[in-house]
Backbone:
C-alpha cells in the first residue's frame, strides 16, 4: 500500500483571502504593517507631547517650592500676598559665577534687591543640582516609555490582523459574482409561484436562504393584512345587514297598513329612528377606524386633566341614564389637581372614557353601580371603570378588543352596540403609548384600567 499526500491544490480547496482577492501575502503583510506603524506613531507623538507637559509642570513645581523656601529669608516689606509676591520696587535677577563653579549650573544664583535696600543671593543652580537625580530618573522613564513604539507597532499589527483578514475577504467577495444568473432566475420563478394566498418562496439554493426568509415574512404580512381586510368588510356588511333589513321591514309595513293605521305609523317611525341612529353610529365608528388605519386621524398633544374628563363623563352619564348609579372613587378636587395632567387630545381621551362607561352600563343590570377612579404615579395617570354586570370568561376577555366581536352572553343581554367601541378606545389609548388592563369574572363584573403616560 502506498501513501500519498492529499492534493491541496485542487479547485475545491479553500484559498486564503489574500489569494482569492488577487492580493499576494507579502503585499497584504506590508499593507498591514504600514497601517500599524501609522497608528503607533500617532500615539507616540501624543505621548511625547504629554511627557513634555509633565516636565514643564514638574519644573514649575520645583521652582515654586524653591521660591517659597527663599522667601522666608527676605526682610518684611519685600514681599506681599502672604509673602510670595515681590512688592513694587523689589527686583529679581539671575546671576552667574557666584557659586564654587564659576562656569557650570552650580554658579547660577537668584539676586533679590528689595526697595528698602540691600541684596540677597540664593543658590538656585546648586539646589537644582541636588534635585538632578530625580529629574534624571524621570527622563529615563520617559525615554523607556517613548521606546515602546516598537512593541506598540507589533501590538497594533496583532489587533489589526482580524480586520485585515476581513477586508481581504470582503475584497475577494467583491471581485466575483456572488449570485450567478441561474440563481437569480430560480428566485424569480419562486416569486412568481408564490403569492399572498400562498406565502412561500423556496428555491433550494443555500445562498438565497436569507432572501427567502425576508420575502416569506413580507408575504405573510401581506396575507394577514388581506385576511384582516376581508374580515373587516365581511363583519361590517353583516352588521349593516340587520338594521337595513329592519328598516326595509318597517317601510313595507308602512306601505301596507301605515297609511290608515295610526298605531302602525307611530311604531314604524319610532323603529326607523332607532335603526337610523344605530346605522349612523356604526358608520361613524367605521369611518373613525378607517381614518385611523390610514393615519388620517389628527391627534392634538396639549395638557389635559384626566380627572376632569372623568368627572365630565360621570355627570353626563348620570344625566342621561337614570337606571344606574354612577359613583366616584376619588374627590372632585381632582379636576384641579396637577397630578392628573397628561399630554393628549381632550376630545379623544374623553371618547375613550365614554366608551368604557357606556360598555359598563350596557352590560350591567338596572340599579347596579358603575364606579370610576383616577390614580397617578411619576410616569403615568390612570383611570378605571368598574361595573357589576355579567362579566366575561378568561377566553372572552382575550377577544373583547377585536372589531365586531361580542360575547354570546353580551348579545343576549343587549341588542345595542356595534362591537366597535372598545376597538376605538384601544386605538386611542395606544396612540398615546398607553395600555388597557382588564380584570373580569363571569357573573360578578369587569374592571377596565387605562394607563396614559404623562408625555
Residues:
Amino acid at each position: 500500500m502506498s501513501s500519498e499526500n492529499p492534493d491541496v491544490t485542487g479547485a475545491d480547496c479553500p484559498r486564503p483571502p489574500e489569494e482569492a482577492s488577487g492580493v499576494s501575502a507579502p503585499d497584504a503583510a506590508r499593507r498591514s504593517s504600514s497601517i500599524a506603524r501609522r497608528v503607533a506613531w500617532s500615539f507616540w507623538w501624543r505621548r511625547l507631547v504629554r511627557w513634555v507637559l509633565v516636565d514643564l509642570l514638574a519644573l514649575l513645581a520645583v521652582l515654586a517650592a524653591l521660591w517659597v523656601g527663599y522667601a522666608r529669608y527676605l526682610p518684611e516689606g519685600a514681599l506681599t500676598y502672604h509673602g510670595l509676591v515681590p512688592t513694587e520696587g523689589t527686583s529679581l535677577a539671575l546671576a552667574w559665577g557666584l557659586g564654587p563653579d564659576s562656569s557650570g549650573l552650580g554658579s547660577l544664583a537668584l539676586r533679590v534687591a528689595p526697595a528698602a535696600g540691600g541684596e540677597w543671593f540664593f543658590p538656585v543652580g546648586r539646589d537644582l543640582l541636588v534635585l538632578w537625580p530625580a529629574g534624571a530618573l524621570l527622563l529615563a522613564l520617559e525615554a523607556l516609555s517613548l521606546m515602546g513604539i516598537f512593541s506598540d507597532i507589533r501590538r497594533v499589527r496583532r489587533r489589526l490582523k482580524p480586520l485585515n483578514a476581513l477586508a481581504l475577504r470582503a475584497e475577494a467577495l467583491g471581485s466575483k459574482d456572488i449570485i450567478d444568473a441561474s440563481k437569480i432566475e430560480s428566485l424569480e420563478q419562486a416569486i412568481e409561484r408564490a403569492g399572498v394566498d400562498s406565502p412561500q418562496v423556496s428555491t433550494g439554493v443555500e445562498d438565497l436562504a436569507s432572501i427567502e426568509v425576508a420575502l416569506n415574512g413580507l408575504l405573510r404580512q401581506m396575507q394577514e393584512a388581506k385576511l384582516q381586510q376581508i374580515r373587516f368588510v365581511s363583519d361590517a356588511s353583516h352588521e349593516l345587514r340587520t338594521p337595513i333589513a329592519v328598516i326595509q321591514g318597517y317601510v313595507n309595513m308602512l306601505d301596507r297598513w301605515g297609511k290608515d293605521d295610526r298605531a302602525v305609523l307611530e311604531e314604524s317611525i319610532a323603529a326607523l329612528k332607532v335603526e337610523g341612529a344605530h346605522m349612523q353610529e356604526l358608520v361613524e365608528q367605521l369611518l373613525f377606524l378607517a381614518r385611523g388605519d390610514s393615519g388620517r386621524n389628527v391627534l392634538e398633544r396639549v395638557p389635559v386633566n384626566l380627572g376632569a374628563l372623568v368627572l365630565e363623563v360621570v355627570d353626563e352619564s348620570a344625566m342621561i341614564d337614570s337606571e344606574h348609579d354612577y359613583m366616584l372613587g376619588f374627590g372632585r378636587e381632582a379636576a384641579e389637581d396637577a397630578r392628573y395632567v397628561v399630554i393628549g387630545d381632550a376630545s379623544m381621551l374623553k371618547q375613550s372614557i365614554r366608551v368604557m362607561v357606556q360598555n359598563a352600563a350596557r352590560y350591567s343590570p338596572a340599579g347596579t353601580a358603575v364606579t370610576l377612579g383616577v390614580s397617578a404615579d411619576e410616569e403615568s395617570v390612570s383611570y378605571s371603570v368598574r361595573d357589576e354586570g355579567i362579566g366575561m370568561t378568561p377566553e372572552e376577555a382575550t377577544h373583547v378588543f377585536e372589531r365586531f366581536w361580542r360575547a354570546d352572553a353580551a348579545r343576549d343581554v343587549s341588542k345595542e352596540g356595534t362591537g366597535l367601541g372598545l376597538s376605538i378606545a384601544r386605538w386611542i389609548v395606544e396612540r398615546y403609548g398607553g395600555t388597557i388592563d382588564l380584570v373580569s369574572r363571569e357573573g360578578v363584573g369587569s374592571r377596565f384600567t387605562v394607563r396614559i403616560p404623562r408625555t
User: Anything to note?
Assistant: Residues 33 and 59 are 38 Å apart (CA to CA).
